[in-house]
Write a structure and sequence with these properties.
By secondary structure, this protein is mainly alpha-helical. Helix content is 64%, strand content 5%. The chain is built from 20 helices and five strands. α6 packs parallel to α8, α7 packs antiparallel against α13 and α12 packs across α14.
């Protein structure tokens, strides 16, 4: 865990403690995210109540959050995203209470939440930046206190920040799969991904990647209806943004804008500058989902309080769309991978029929670790060993010189890894002609033994 600085160090200690208490079955690991999700709800209620000064706003917010398909997808994963969302919600709440009450205990709590949020993900810095700009725009009277609190949080994060700096080359190599070399990243493509992300927070009636999957041009019959619903949700979001800018008081307006748009802008610039597609990897954008849900809450609650039935109906429609999305997701084996599942199954069938294969990988293909793990989950064999190596590995013989492997395969590997291995092995490497998610090479095991 701590030897891999690209990982997020806070989540995994919690997860290790959890599985020692609850067990180590896959369901037990996923249950950790569910517990974190449940802990999030009271803090989210308090955040909305503090921001809008309304209990109704709190109930609307947790209703939308509870049926958000985007949130539920990552609640059920044994990864850090839902913990990240929880800590940022707590941080937002402590931030508002700190500037409202301006006393030591709230500033201390905020300082600790800043530290924890950074240990979950360095991208939390974009939220901290938003808070800082908010202070400069609305509360210059507490700027010294804020600088003290934020400095304390950053000092506590300093050991890991130094580790990230010292291992920057290794981190860049580990995250190289983010770089997309198969699609030309034009100026509109990241923007399109972000627009799809915004409505996917509330509506995922269809796995959108079944439509954009380049392995097939056949579209599901429900595509038209799903896009129509998504477009309607997006219209409401855009309308809510316009209403926020024009009609809302500046404290609420600046707070919501500054916890949403710095993240979107940063990801857009990153995608254009580095030729990546992270705006389409929506799990990385979960840190702005709370702001978007609060934006919709602000648009609904005042109008509902005034008895405007039309907005109450729209709110009910949002919750119904969310519930329907959750049902659709629950009926699917996988989500957000498109029709590539058939390709994964081809790979899994190959590995499952081998008696005891060793798979060498650096997760360096375009799909990265996520695609690799989908293949592993589809395998029907418990006798598969996986060697996760770096592209520059030397002395590969120390790994493969075992007599008990029936086959030694290279899979989901970067070009750097395969180019490095070929001269080291000094044996023939056969490319297996299978219709899978990534090229598979077989090392001539007979010569190697």
């Amino acid at each position: 865990m701590f030897s891999e600085p690209q990982m997020n160090p806070l989540h995994y200690p919690f997860l290790m403690i959890w599985y020692r208490i609850a067990g180590d079955d896959p369901a037990d690991f996923r249950l950790f995210g569910v517990i974190v999700f449940l802990l999030t709800l009271p803090f989210l209620f308090l955040l909305a109540k503090s921001l809008f000064k309304s209990n109704l706003a709190g109930w609307i917010t947790i209703s939308l959050y509870s049926v958000s398909p985007h949130i539920h997808l990552f609640t059920q994963e044994a990864r850090y995203y839902i913990l990240w969302s929880f800590i940022l919600i707590v941080s937002h709440y402590f931030f508002l209470k700190s500037i409202q009450l301006d006393n030591f205990k709230w500033w201390l709590a905020y300082s600790l939440s800043v530290m924890f949020s950074l240990y979950v993900s360095p991208v939390s810095g974009l939220i901290i930046l938003g808070h800082m700009i908010y202070i400069l725009l609305t509360r210059k009277d507490v700027i010294r206190t804020y600088i003290t609190a934020i400095s304390a949080g950053l000092i506590l994060y300093l050991p890991w920040a130094v580790s990230l700096l010292l291992d920057s080359k290794r981190i860049t190599a580990a995250l190289a799969w983010h770089t997309n070399t198969q699609i030309e990243v034009t100026f509109w493509l990241p923007l399109l991904g972000q627009l799809f992300y915004l409505f996917s927070i509330f509506s995922s009636t269809l796995d959108i990647f079944t439509v954009f999957d380049r392995t097939s041009t056949e579209m599901p019959p429900e595509t038209g209806g799903a896009f129509l619903i998504g477009f309607a949700v997006l219209v409401v979001i855009i309308t809510a943004v316009i209403s926020l800018i024009k009609k809302e008081e500046k404290e609420i307006k600046y707070f919501l804008l500054l916890i949403i748009f710095p993240g979107l802008i940063a990801f857009y610039i990153h995608d254009i500058a580095r030729h990546t597609m992270t705006s389409w990897w929506w799990r990385y954008l979960i840190f702005i989902s709370t702001g978007v849900i609060l934006l919709i809450t602000g648009y609904f609650y005042k109008r509902i309080e005034k008895g405007k039935l039309f907005y109450f109906v729209i709110f009910i429609a949002f919750t119904a769309i969310g519930i329907n999305s959750l049902f659709n997701i629950s009926q699917s084996r996988h989500w957000l991978i498109g029709k590539k599942l058939d390709l994964y199954i081809h790979d899994a069938q190959l590995f499952s029929q081998l008696s005891k294969p060793l798979i060498i990988t650096d997760y360096g293909s375009s799909g990265g670790f996520a695609d690799f793990m989908v293949v592993v989950m589809e395998c029907r064999s418990d006798n598969i060993d996986i060697a996760n190596v770096t592209p520059e590995i030397s002395k590969i013989e120390n790994i493969i010189n075992r007599k008990d492997y029936s086959d030694i395969l290279i899979f989901h590997a970067s070009k750097e890894l395969t180019d490095n291995l070929k001269p080291q092995l000094r044996v023939k490497i056969d490319s297996l002609k299978i219709k899978g998610s990534s090229p598979v090479w077989k090392i001539n095991a007979a010569d190697n033994h």
